[in-house]
Amino acid sequence: MRSPAAAIAWEIWRKNRWGLWVLLGSFLCGLAVRFFDRPGDEVLQLIAGTAMVVSFVVTFAIFSYAESGMQMSFPTRTFALPVRTRLLVNCPVLLGVVGITLVHLAWVFLFLLPLDAGYPLGPFTLYWAAALLTFQTLLWCLADYPKSFVVVLVLAMALFVRLAVVLFENHDAMRAIDCLIIVLPVAYLGARLGIRQQRRGEWQIPAKAQLLMEVANRKLLHRKRPFATAAQAQRWMEWQRNAVAPLIALGIGLLVVCIGFVRLAALDDEFGAITWAWSYIVCALLTLWAFVTSVLLARDASSKSLALSSFLATRPLTSGELAFAKIKVAGRVTLVGWIIFGVALFFWFNFFGLHADTPITPRDGALLPTMGFAALALAWHLVGALPLWLTGKIESAAWAGLLLLGGYIALGHAIQFLDKRFGLLVALSLLFTFGLIAKILIAVWAFSEVNRRQLLSSRTIFKYFAFWLLGTICLVTIASAMSQGGGFPQPLVTLGAALLLPLARVGLAPLALAWGRHR
Amino acid sequence: MQIHISPNDGVPIYLQIVNQVKYLVGSGRLSPGEEIPPIRVLAQQLLVNPNTVARAYLELEREGVVAKRHGSGTYISETGSPLARRERLKILTQRADALLAEARHLDVDLDEVIKLFRERQEILARSQK
Amino acid sequence: MKTDSSPPTDPVVEIKGLSRRFGAKLALDNVSLCVPRGMVFGLVGENGAGKTTLIKHVLGSLKAQSGEVSVFGLDPVTDPVGVLGRVGYLSEQRDLPLWMRMDELLRYTQAFYPTWDVGYAEQLRRQFGLDPASKIKSLSRGECAKAGLLLALAHRPDLLLFDEPSSGLDPVVRRDILEAIIRTVADEGRTVFFSSHMLDEVERVSDHLAMMVNGKVVLCGLLDAVKESHHRLTLRFGTAPARPPSLAGALIVHGGGQEWTVICNGALGELIAEAASLGARVVEQGVPSLEEIFVARVGARVLRTQPSSDL
Fold first, then answer.
1. Do C114 and C214 fall within a single domain?
2. I need a surface site. Which of A361, A367, C190, C230 has the fewest CB within 10 A?
């Protein structure tokens, strides 16, 4: 290596060779789709879109230049090297900007230019550079304060989503571009300042503020009573560690979206379009949040990794109780998530009651699917891949995400295939029925195995089955009542409601954890 | 009770304890009837296995240096005086051997050494009056 | 009331014919061990000899690929609660949850062990000087080790399981750990099983000893018996031998010229006779320390795998 800059560049390349393979793979995927593209083939478009998203996410991950392990932060071991701080910061920043620009331009030339001549190339190049830089700055500066990091990251993401929407529609393009032009140097200077202070050891909350936070923490969140049972203690640990931050992020995210749309609606008159946009964005937000939260919930509550730590593996608690603590906390998070979403809906109704002439009722075309989708996203994702992650064999969220994505694509393909044969309605009904039968069979096998190995007491298994039965009956009744008047076919909705509450996955989770605990 | 043990000595640890207790008794630092710490306390103090300390105590009891009283601990035996005397002589013997070896090294013969002893004894007796 | 499934004279940990393979590497090769009740059992071996793998089998973190493991008469894989509830475990890797505070950690751990003694835990906490309001991630290495030790001791376990507890710690903390071992075994019926590199600590504190080399147990028995069966002999030859002398039972030989020192295993009388038959006189004879035996055992393996050019 001739120079420190070359060494840092080489290090980024060497550490992230997997990422470069994934990038290559996604580009090849995109090329293949371009080659085989037939008009109207939506699955291929979906694949190409997924590959694009994956390549962007991987680029962000590569240039985050963060040391994985105990704490994801700027690699502090570089502080002992004889280089100036500005070099340490400039290298990953410049490489990141170049990298994301290249990825962005590649996709643009591959897909967007031939399709859409009105794509604002210049502003979006600026946009992506600013996005990466902001992400880097936030990650490096707030590594020690994970809760604040999550909150600020959500706010930043909301800002950037809004900027993207504005740039696409070309309203106030100048304002958006000005905003980006300001964000770039601010983020860069923030990164320089943060790293410089960290290197000097001065990057901390001032002592008085820390003391105040400690006192507040003690008064509000401090638990003084001892725990009644080990299971309760484990649930407390899971809740404290994995559940609080995502819920706060959800609350703030929804708040920001609602406030954004309120401002938008105050300027615009097309309530129909705005409502659709709101539903779409909220669904997307909820799905993304539910996915990220499900990964966070599956994390080991003691260490930060997905694999079971030896601290929890050596607790005198059955694998079933360990898994069930997670599931119960996931249930609680779902419940609180629905309450937060309900508050957001209530807020939206009220707003429309004030500004619109026609009040919006739940039967409105946009809101029923929103609620349905929200319920599905929250419940399904939160427990959905838990058995997969609890095995501890999948070491990173990226792999898990890719596996899930593959599952979705396969599902989409299956729907398309059945749609061509039988039509969409029959296709979905078939799938749902098959899903329900598979769910019950897998659940029966899994729970009998759990009972045989004494991973859970028979009482707990019984109680969960009873809860599932009761809950499903309630949901089916509600679904059939709601679909009486509306335009949705009753059997489909009732079947969907029956599939809502997790059963098979809950049975598989203890087995998966036991498999990972005793290798 | 000050005892130092070193595991690398080559002498088994229990034997080191036995020898040092005998030395302490002999030099008067442990008087007859005095209580020595229970096994568990000494084990914690020295950081050795309690079984090793138990073995040392058993050996001391067998040789009559200590005696166990029912339930109330272990004490230096009253009849320790002949052993104490033997121990005392052993200490002096060691010193005498060292002195004689040094005298030979310095080429001082036995008569001069005895004369030296008598002189020093007179001075000591006069200063004590 | 805990039910004791094994009578008082049965061993606490029994390992029979345990083998474990990681890919191509054989980490444990037909290991058989027996840890009797009320004893301190020391396990020594170089890095990579398989000590941690063995301890993980005792905890149930690894399933026996062949052979069997039983702790308190139970299988740690099928009954983790029955086994782990009576075991206090301290590993060299401090894997405590970093985000918890000290008092939260104590309250959390208390819920898992019905035999947790709150007064004793508080006494230990004060003795170790651990601030209840401090976060685990702000503790130094020694304080982390003391916190782990507190968690392992406070519920008065029947088996203390330590995996290289003293590695990287200052002498004060090492003293605390040794004291904990001695205090535990001084109580009736409680057992200690620990692996360590600190051979002088093992020598002071163990009743039983097992030595592992390359996944195999090369020595197992009472510490005194092991030491008595090894001898350090210094041989003086009339004329300097052309090659280093080889005695049956010799583990390692070093020296030069007319005097050679041998660490060997076997009956003393036979060894002296054999030395005489080689034309040497025994000028010094002693009991080697555990470290010398360890180096001899491990080093001998290294020497023997080399082509025998000069040995």
1. yes
2. A361
**For helices A42-63 and A85-107, angle between their N-to-C axes, nearest 10 degrees:** 170
Domain region containing C211: 13-225
For residues A44 and A36, give the distance between their C-alpha atoms in angstroms, rounded to a whole number.
Answer: 9
- Is pTM beyond 0.80? Reply is no
Token code pair at residue A296: 């966070």
> Which residues on chain B are in Cβ contact (under 8 Å) with C177?
none
CA A290/CA A297 separation, integer angstroms: 10
Q: Give the closest of C61, C79, C111 to A233, CB-based.
A: C111
Query: Which residue ranges form the domains of chain B, and what is each CATH number?
Result: 7-81 (1.10.10.10)
Whether residues C61 and C20 share a domain: the answer is yes
Task: Please identify, among C225, C255, C285, the residue that sits at the C-terminal boundary of a domain.
Answer: C225
Write down the H helix ranges in chain C: 51-59, 80-84, 102-110, 118-128, 141-153, 171-186, 199-205, 223-228, 268-277, 290-305
Same-domain pairing of C238 and C149 = no
Question: For residue B115, what pLDDT is reported?
Answer: 93
Any alpha helices (H) in A299-384, and if so which ranges?
Answer: 310-313, 319-355, 367-384
pLDDT digits 0-9 by tens, C81-123 = 999 999 999 988 878 988 888 988 999 999 999 999 999 999 9
| Interface contact B49-C40, CB threshold 8 A | yes
Q: Decide which of C175, C193, C225 is a domain's last residue.
A: C225
The residue type of B21 is V
- CB spacing of A223 vs C89 below 8 angstroms: no
Within a domain: C240: yes
pLDDT digits (tens, 9 = 90+) for A254-300: 888 888 777 777 766 666 677 777 777 787 788 778 877 887 888 88
Ramachandran bin of C222, using left for φ above 0, alpha for ψ from -120 to 50, beta for the remaining angles: beta
